[in-house]
Amino acid sequence: MKSGWRLAWLCLAGAALFGAFLTVETSPVRAQETTQETNQEQDIRFDNGYCLGCHDGETAGISLSNIELPSGEILDINVHRDTYESSVHGQLEMSCVLCHTDISEFPHDPIEAEDLRDFAVSNYTACATCHDSQYSATHDSVHGAALLAGNNEAAVCTDCHGAHDVQEATTRAPAIQRTCENCHFEIYTAYQDSVHGADLFLAGNPDVPTCTDCHGVHDVEGPAVAGFHLFSPQICADCHDDQELMDKYGISTDVFDTYVADFHGSTVVIFEELFPDQETNKPVCIDCHGVHNIASADNPNSQTFRANLLGTCQRCHPEATTNFPTSWLSHYQPTRENTPLVYYVNLFYRILIPLVIGAMLLWVIVDIFRKLAARRKEVASA
């Protein structure tokens, strides 16, 4: 009898152990299945089709009601699939939620922006997720400084690149100018009529400078930045000191070299070396030629046109008279045809100085040999 009870207890214990074993073995499998189901649900939400199922009115056959913000402005929340898929992000098949990280559930949390500008400023920071270096550079720019100072109208990433329609960045194209035009219309108009702008828009010349060539791309600088005015000749030199580029258009690179060599340029170079954060008291290129309205010297509207040159000089030299500008040789080396007097004076000194220095060196050498010969004679006679 006792052996029967013992056998029954052993069977129950074995069954309990077997059940526990099954529980231990099957629970990870069940957990994995549960995780897979959860991931599958999340993957559906991460898929752009999940978002565009509602937000692409053309494909979904529905039109989402646009949101009226407290300001009364209307926020369009419809995104066309073709527009996004043709963008650089769409071509990379990037998920919507990579930018819209605060949206995970449906219905979405209400939008807290007061107006359209507030919405743009509060969402552009999503760009930092993938473009941290460019995003950081904007904080050191005039746009970033204005934004940090409380100016909500300062340009942010999406103002220049767009939001769902971001395209490949270009380096030299009218599109760059027209992007800047959105905020800087008056400057754009002045540039459009300048010697650079006219060549870009009318002739399609890719070599002329655009806004970003002079002001930078993400680290945009302007007159408000200390040292920008002082170092601006280096911006001009990027093109005008390029021998190959200037030869292409028959422009002399003496333009930059002669400026650096004259009194104005030499003083500016000294300021660059000794006082990089101090404003120079001597004119740089843009002081004489203009900034965005630069015109050819033979254009009657140019600040460097001969009839207008006196007025340009009088900005720094109010006592200048009619003949004052004639002392300027322009940005070219003196020649026998144009400035014979200056040419021959320069030639005279180019010959005289080497002759004088050469004669002095010859006299020193002869004197040394004479003294050495006299010393040997003294030694021999002793």
Description:
- The protein has 382 residues and is mainly α.
- The protein folds into four domains: 29-169, no CATH class; 172-220, no CATH class; 225-333, no CATH class; 337-373.
- Helices cover 57% and strands 1% of the residues.
- It has helices at residues 2-46, 48-55, 57-60, 81-85, 88-91, 116-123, 132-139, 142-148, 157-161, 174-181, 185-192, 195-201, 211-215, 228-240, 243-248, 254-261, 263-274, 285-289, 306-313, 340-381, and strands at residues 67-68, 74-75.
- The chain has a two-stranded antiparallel ribbon with strand order 1-2.
- Strand 1 and strand 2 form a beta hairpin.
- Helix 16 packs across helix 17.
- It starts with a helix and ends with a helix.
Keywords:
single chain; 382 residues; mainly alpha; two-stranded antiparallel sheet; 20 helices; elongated
- The number of domains is 4
Helix and strand run: HHHEEHHHHHHHHHHHHHHHHH
- Give the tally of β-strands: 2
Percent of residues in beta strands?
Answer: under 5%
Low-confidence stretches: 20-42
Q: Identify the overall geometry.
A: elongated
Strand line-up in the sheet with most strands: 1-2
Concise structural overview:
The protein has 382 residues and is mainly alpha-helical. Helices cover 57% and strands 1% of the residues.
